[in-house]
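re the bet — no i am not wrong, look at it urself. input seq straight from the record:
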Amino acid sequence: MVQRATPYVPGKQIDGVDILKLNTNENPYPPSPKVIDAIETEMKASLQLYPSPTVDSLRETVGELYDLSADHVFVGNGSDEVLAFSFMAFFEHGEEIVFPKITYSFYEVYATLFDVPYKLVELERDFTIPVEQLFQAEGGVIFPNPNAPTSLYMTLDSVREVIEQNPNKVVIVDEAYVDFADKSAVSLINDYDNLLVIQTTSKSRALAGLRVGFALGQPHLIDALVRIKDSMNSYTIDRLALVGAKAAIKDVYYTRKRVDQIIETRKWAQEKLREMGFCVLPSQTNFLFAEHYSYDGAILQEKLQEMNVLIRHFNVPPIENYLRITIGTDEQMTQFFEKLQQAMDQM
């Protein structure tokens, strides 16, 4: 089984004060001050005790955010773990699941690791997902919304179509970036018993270092995830992550303020790239996906790395000339554009 697994390759991690890191879609701003206060209090009080295996308090907090009860919420050690548990809970060995060909590469990793057959759906020429190709899946459907790395968002009407056209199979919508987009599919949960929505605290809430993700769905789906978790490790979330995530989720004002800042920066960064001759997809994420017809994307990425600027390049057709650029602060993006112009001038 180990031999057939092809591990996920994350963005390059380089430590250093002079590194401009725009390759892993991290939030450029710190988390809410309430997160720091909660963690400091917990550090002084309870680290000698095991955390709650049922994480009821955090489940209640997440549920309140979306007008759902705690039994509609599952919490895991980052959305990657929640995704892994979901593959084990809902996808069968002999039944083919469906997901886009250009998407989060962990889907192929998990499908291969758990011996689940899969069909890859080619994107349209404009990189949108052809919704009808997700209908009537034998084993289920999974896709990000917005998609990664393309940054494109599928409307809730289209999401609803996918759910209704797979009435007896679970449809998983991976919403890591949804806070930077239009609407979440969480609003559909009460209407469909086959919808599971997965989110993370890593992006909009700036908690990539704490590793807390969660799934939302009707209670029978949540029960299935709990059974998988408890068969492997009852204590998946540590005390610091629990209190930090709870504080972040409760501080709605702070999250919205930072998200709005990132969206404003995204708007002008997108226009700046277009002024420099790039084709930029209409992002609803905290990153931009762009290519320049006159410059090789891989070479641009290499030249920027030589200048201590990290962005992401995927050497996979049909996106092999595209670059994925995380939205930083205004200051960071100004610095990025200066370096990008230098790199283009050298080619």
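see?? Residues 210 and 241 are 5 Å apart (CA to CA). told u. also The longest strand covers residues 195-200. so pay up
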